[in-house]
Amino acid sequence: MSASGPWLDVDLGALLRNARSYAKTIGVPILPMVKANAYGLGVLPVARALEAIDPWGFGVATLGEARQLRQAGMGRRIMVFVPFVPERLDEYLELDLRPAIGSVRGLDAWMGASDRPFHLEIDTGMGRGGFRWHDDASLAAARERIQGSSRYEGVFMHFAASDTSEAMTVEQADRFDTVVAALGRPAVVHLANSAAGQWGTRYAGTLARPGIFLYGGQAGALVPEPVARLQALVHAVRPVRAGDTISYGATHTVAADGEVVTLGIGYADGLHRALSGTGLVAIGDASWTIAGRVTMDMTMIVTPRQTVRVGQVATLFGGPLPLDAQAARAGTISYELLTSVGPRVVRRYGETA
After folding, report:
1. Quick one: average pLDDT of 342-352?
2. Is 35 a catalytic site residue?
3. pLDDT tens, 325-343?
4. Which of 35, 39, 92, 267 is catalytic?
5. I want to staple 195 with a disulfide (CB 3.0 to 4.6 A). Which of 28, 171, 219, 338 is the partner?
């Protein structure tokens, strides 16, 4: 912990138990998604911890993320999920990466310059990238090019609503199966994200890509162990009277005499401004609502007198404040709370049995 700044406690033991639990449920090897600095938790400590489960590889979003892993000595397969851009082909080859190819142009560029493996992306309704499932001309062109190619290692899709809509999940999977049957089935077929694991092996393919579940966020009906706890110190405790106002815009008016407590954390650290007046702060066995607006570096609560003292630890999510519940108070999702945790927040790593 730093002298005064906020910190994020990361339980690597819980992370591994979530990974093992998901792998047991889905029944196939996993490709942990470690994009966005491992969902804000710190990619290198997280990836090193996940080596214990012998993953198929690691999934990232960008070339920069892949380079960070390679420079740290990661030798496992790395797949980049942002759509492949032929102009960056040399970097993919330099770093020995699996591309997500979703266009005939991209496929031609890769096959014309490399004998390395690639994965085709099929867009079955997510709309971010890949060959559209109904683009018969492009799919036919792709099929012609990959026939008999040992480089055609994998094919994948991404569910748009596996956490909220079983009907759409079924429809997307059916579209995917139809396309894969036409293209030819490669050795690696992956479609399951975290939430798709709630149906067990139904969407397992031969490889699954858990993300948020590993890091302590609920995924559909799957409830993981908590992994991360965001905390900060109490820096000041001062008396306030009924009628006093708190924070910018005087958006909070004190209802009764008490104390205003100042925490050393704000939106520059990733504490969402949307939690102003609605988010909870836990200190000891009690919790209080954030008073007024979250400011850049500090956040306030109002407590009864002689309840809180300077130097105590406040929890902003995790522990007594479940991650998903705090995200809901901010009107967002667990992914955003985790990935918003800023660089000046110290990450501390431990491991529970």
Report:
1. 94
2. yes
3. 999 999 999 999 999 999 9
4. 35
5. 219
